[in-house]
Structure formats: C-alpha cells, structure tokens
Amino acid sequence: MDEQHKSGGNRKQEQLEQFRVNDEGQKMTTNQGLRVSEDEFSLKAGERGPTLMEDFHFREKMTHFDHERIPERVVHARGFAAHGEFELYTSMKPYTKAKFLQEPGTVTPVFVRFSTVAGSRGSAETVRDARGFATKFYTEEGNYDLVGNNIPVFFIQDAIKFPDLIHALKPEPHHEMPQAATAHDTFWDFVANNQESAHMIMWAMSDRAIPRSFRMMEGFGVNTFRFVNEQGKAHFVKFHWKPVLGTHSLVWDEAQKIAGKDPDFHRRDLWESIEQGNYPEYELGVQLLPEEDEFKFDFDILDATKLWPEEDIPVQLIGKMTLNRNVDNVFAETEQVAFHPGHVVPGIDFTNDPLLQGRLFSYTDTQLIRLGGPNFHELPINRPVCPFHNNQRDGYGRQTINVGQVSYHNNSLAGNTPSPAAEAEGGYVHYQEKVEGRKIRARSESFKDHFSQATLFWNSMSLAEKQHIIDAFSFELGKVKSKSVRQQVVDMFGNVSLKLAVPVAEAIGVIPPSGAGSQSSKSSPALSQENTVKSPRTRKAGVIVGTGFDGAEAKSVLNALIAEGVQAEFISDKLGVLHGSENTECEVVHTFLTADSVLFDAVYALGGELASADSDRKAAFFIQEAYSHYKPIGAAAGGMKWLEPQMVNSPGVVTGVSGSNFAASFIEAIAAHRHWDRA
Questions:
Q1: Which residues are in the Catalase core domain (predicted)?
Q2: Contacts of 582 (CB under 8 A, 6+ apart)
Q3: Sheet of 576-579: strands edge to edge?
Q4: Does this chain's domain 458-530 share its CATH topology with 534-678?
Q5: Is-catalytic flag, 175?
Q6: From residue 153, how far is each of 123, 149, 285, 311 by CA, in Å?
C-alpha cells in the first residue's frame, strides 16, 4: 500500500484536531476569551443581597446550560459511535466509478454510529429492537453515507407509512408506556393491519433483535442502490457488513436482566474493546445484479420488505472496516453527526425503491430541526475532508467566512465561479433511467407477496432459533390487552407457518389458525446464526476465585485463555489481591454485588475459599444463572463445589485438573458461544 493510501485513514483525524480543546491546566475564561476571577459566587448587591443583572459571566454560563440540549432523534435516539477506517480489498472499477472503490489498498476514514430504533436517549441498550448501523465515509469526492440496520429488510414498502409505523411502536400516547418496547397493543395492531411487515417481524422476534454486542452484529444497507461505472453501465447493488467475529446474540432473559444491571452494556462493550485494542472489524460485502436480471426472481428486487437470498445472489467481500478510535466527546460527535442516504459520490446512485425515495427527503428535513438549520454540514464531525464551494450563505450556525462580493450563479464578476464540474471532472451526474407512467397513488402488483420470505426465514432457523421466535411472539403478544389484536396476529402468521402460529396461539389464549399454512420448504442457510463464525476472541470470562486457589492451575488455564484472546476478570466476595498456592496472586475487580453472570460470556470456577457460606451460595447462583443461559462453564478441581450435580457432563460444561486438555476444551466451548442442546 503506498503512502497516499496509508494517509487516507488519518485525514479526518487531522481535520478534527483543530477543533479539539484540552482544558486541563488552563485558566478559565468566558466564551469571549476573558479570564474569569471567580466561578463559585454570582455578583450580588452585598453578601446577602440580590444577584445583579450585570453579572455577564453568570448569564453566559447559565444561558449556555439552558440551551445545552438539542432535540433527540425521533428514531435511533439511543446511539453510540466510533471512528475508524475502511480498506478496499478488490477493485470495483468494472461496476462503479466511485474513487474510494477503485484501487485495492485505498484507505478511507469512516465514522460509524450504532443505535436502537424505538427508545429514547435514556433507554436501555439490550431491548428487543432493530439496530441502526450508519457509516459515514469521508472520501476525496465528498461524504458518502451508508445508512442501514442490522436487519436487511424493513416493516413497510413505501415511506409514506413511516410516521404511522413509528407512532404505533412508540409508547402509547395516552400514558406514555412502554418505553423502548414493541410488546403493546398499538404496535401489534399496526402489524396485523399492515401485513407487509410480516418478514421484518420474523427478524424482530428472532435472536437478531437482541445482539450480543455491536461488534458481533451484521449490518445491511436495506434498500436497493445502483453502482454506475465510467461507461455508464449500471448494476443493482445491496450492501452488507459482515462482522469478523461472527453474528451472535443474547438470550431474552439475559437481555432483560442486563437492561437493569447495565443499561449501557453495548456502548460499554464497544468503548472498552477499542480502548483495549480489540478493534471491531467488519467486511463490506456487495450483492450485484445486472439491470437485465431485474425481473428474474419470485420477488421484486426494489421491495424493501424482501432480501436477496445469498444462495441466489452471492455476497462478494470487497473490503474491511476497522473501528480503532473512540470519540472525544459524545455530544459533539455522536449526537451531532448527520447521516443521509442522499449523501452519495459519483458511481453510487438510487433506484425506484419507494422506501428509499422517501428517505431521500426525510433525512435532510430531520437534520434541519435537530441541528438548528441548514449549516449542519459545517459541524466538525460532518465536514467532508475535501473542500466544498457553492453559493449557499448565512443561516444559523454558519462557520464559513465567505470572501468576495459574488454569491450567485450565473455571474461575470467572479468569472462565473464557483462553476459546475463536468462528469469527466468528477461532477455528479444522475443515472439516466427512462421513466414514464401516469401519476398514480398505487403499489406494484409485484409488491403484494407478504409471506413467502417470512416463511423462508422461518425455514432457515435452527430448532433453538425457532423456539426463541415462538417464545418472543408469546411474550410480546402476551403483553397485548386486546384479544382481537392477538387473534388477528396469530391468524396473520398462520400464513407463515402453522408450526409457529399454533404454539403461539396456545400460549396467549386465542384460537389456533386452521388451514394448511405455507407449504414452502425453501431455506437459506446464511440466515441462521448457527452457521456464523465462532471464535473465542474478545469473549469475556468471569473467574470465580477465593483465597488459597490452585496457583499452578490458574496460570495454566488463564495463560491459555489469554493466548486465544479471551479476557478473564476475577470475581470474589471482596475486591483486592488474593493469594494462591505457589506464590501466585490475582487482582479481584468484581464482587458478587457488582458483577453478574449476564455480563460475561463464560464462567470459570477456579476455586479457593470464600469468606462465608453466603458467598458460596452467591458463587453457585452465579454459575447456575450462566448455565441456564446456555453459556460455557469451566470448573477446576477446586471449583467443582459450586456446580450442581446435573451440570457435570452437560454440553458446554468442562471440568478437569492440571495436566488434562481442560483449557483447550474450555476454549472450544467458549468459541461455540451457546450450548442449546443442554436443555
């Protein structure tokens, strides 16, 4: 990789440097630069008198505080972000003229924001929900935003229904409940009466809606876009982000408990992983389809409630994104970043996907109200790394100081500049698609199949995943008060599979649907998380330990775990240093009060003596809870006392002593993530 490409990843960081301020060691000033002599007391008429209006420092400080908050996003309000870079593996020149996709080795700085959809900024992060996966590429041709989700399809086909969807899934307006949850009447009433949502609901009720971490979560562009090459030849394209660590999830009971134990669980995981150098990595994949193949499938490729099965249209991996730097300030960067699917570069264009067409309006409109006007592009996190020149002027928050007397086109006083760039000079030219037809409010007949891909998803799940979907429907609909709505939903999903609808009906007290149900047996192995990458890297193991632990075994096992990238953290009844045999010691960083099994991927019962019988009970419960969530359990000879008899020889439970293959077996169990056959 040449130096020009290497430096690409640093351009945004260098640009942001001029906006960073470190206040440490500095004298306090007002926003005008005046040094402040006192910041504890307001200016008063006598020590016990009223505060004076002339106290400009108090007024500036308080006014700024009163205006610190901006409107949160209507959706995707709860988010967290990081900086990184994207490196291209394979030239996409045959398909697109986008410069950052031309030469292998090209490095482009990126900023990525992950988010939940439904909840407010203060909601928990492990709720059942779709997750936003928005990426801003700072390219030399301008900013390109790939604004997607961790689910490849969406609830609706036409953007005009988006306000209805969000009104239905948000807390019900008469009592503002529930927060960050779809388990209520209005959401499921919307689903039952807008059956195009069937496919998305299958994903939302699956394990995909409760990811283990942002680092182990797929991303999708959702909509169908176009690649256009130098010759003007176009291909339809779908975008995918494939996490290098594989796609993994929580279990529902675990997700609920984490929401109480650590509502910041996902952002904490992302932050700590980057600080520790365990940089999240995602490979960018594309599905490409020649325009002449648009109508060769049993679904409409422009329908956002449909995916392109990977077995029919393979995903080509073309590059890797690495998130390697945390933000300096969450508000200035994460909250003020403005994404928009209309932020494109030459070589990337749109299609007639009616959901995408509406998004192209909505996103700019949103930024205008959130960020106070049309100059949101001048905020440091949103500024492109290339220069920008136009005749736009003034407005709230303007930072650019434009010089000269001319701010219009056409003109002679400035030689008619800034002037449009020809296509050969990098000017963006829209793809020339022939469009004709009568003005009509209607939907194509090809959009009317709402159940075949929902059935495809169901057929593709493992037995454990299918049971989780049944349980999720049963929980969500069990919270719905209207029996009519519950019945409508069950009848609707009878069109997907009776093996899904019947047990749900029995669980929620409605009449099971009758009829044959879907007879389709088509499946797509790529949709099941059982077929994902399985690795022990960056997994977090809680090590339960007491005084006098076996030092030799601790060294052997822990060194093996660390060598495979597993993070081990010690848990006991008190913080501090504990001593084991052979002059060993360990630093306890969690107690049974401050840590819980739901915050770890695995548990290793090392052994030793705890302070009391109550502590032993807490250790046993810690392990029992992890076991009930199908997590790997390792027990050294000294830790066997905390295991219940039925755990021994159970799948994913590894026991042993020094000199055995205990460590290797435990690492293998950790890599598997869950052991569903334990039940």
A1: 29-417
A2: 551, 552
A3: 576-579, 585-591, 567-572, 540-545, 602-607, 633-635, 653-655
A4: no
A5: no
A6: 24, 9, 16, 17
**402 among known catalytic residues:** no
CATH code for the domain defined by 79-382: 2.40.180.10
**Amino acid residing at 389:** H
| Domains of the chain by residue range | 79-382, 458-530, 534-678
> How many Cα neighbours within 13 Å face the side chain of 253?
9
Q: Which of 2-16, 180-194, 556-570, 601-615 has the lowest mean pLDDT?
A: 2-16
158 alpha-carbon distance from chain centroid? 23
Is there a contact between 331 and 338 (Cβ–Cβ < 8 Å)?
Answer: no
458-530 — its CATH code? 1.20.1370.20
**Pairwise CA distance, residues 383 & 387, whole Å:** 9
* Amino acid at position 461, single letter: M
CA 534 to chain centroid: 19
Catalytic residue among 143, 149, 382, 495: 149
Tell me the C-alpha distance between 423 and 152, whole Å: 33
Per-residue pLDDT at 604 exceeds 50: yes
pLDDT for 657: 60
* pLDDT at residue 18 in the model: 87
Peptide bond between residue 152 and the one before it cis (omega within 30 degrees of 0): no
Residue 679 has pLDDT above 80, yes or no: no
- Homologous superfamily (CATH) of 534-678 is Class I glutamine amidotransferase (GATase) domain (3.40.50.880)
pLDDT for 4 equals 46
DSSP E strand stretches across 486-566: 540-545
Closest listed residue to residue 567, CA positions, set 602, 598, 534, 595: 602
Q: Going by C-beta distance under 8 Å and a sequence separation of 6 or more, which residues neighbour residue 104?
A: 88, 89, 90, 91
Dihedral angle at the C-alpha atoms of 469, 472, 478, 482, nearest 10 degrees?
-70
Identify the active-site residue in 5, 64, 67, 76.
Answer: 76
- Given the DSSP bridges, would you call strands 219-220 and 225-228 parallel, antiparallel or unpaired? unpaired
What percent of the chain lies above the pLDDT cut of 90?
87
Q: Per-residue pLDDT tens for 519-543?
A: 999 999 999 999 999 999 999 999 9
Residue closest to 194 by CA, chosen among 151, 224, 154, 222:
154
pLDDT, tens only, 131-147: 999 999 999 999 999 99
Q: How many CA atoms lie within 13 A of 224 on its CB side?
A: 22
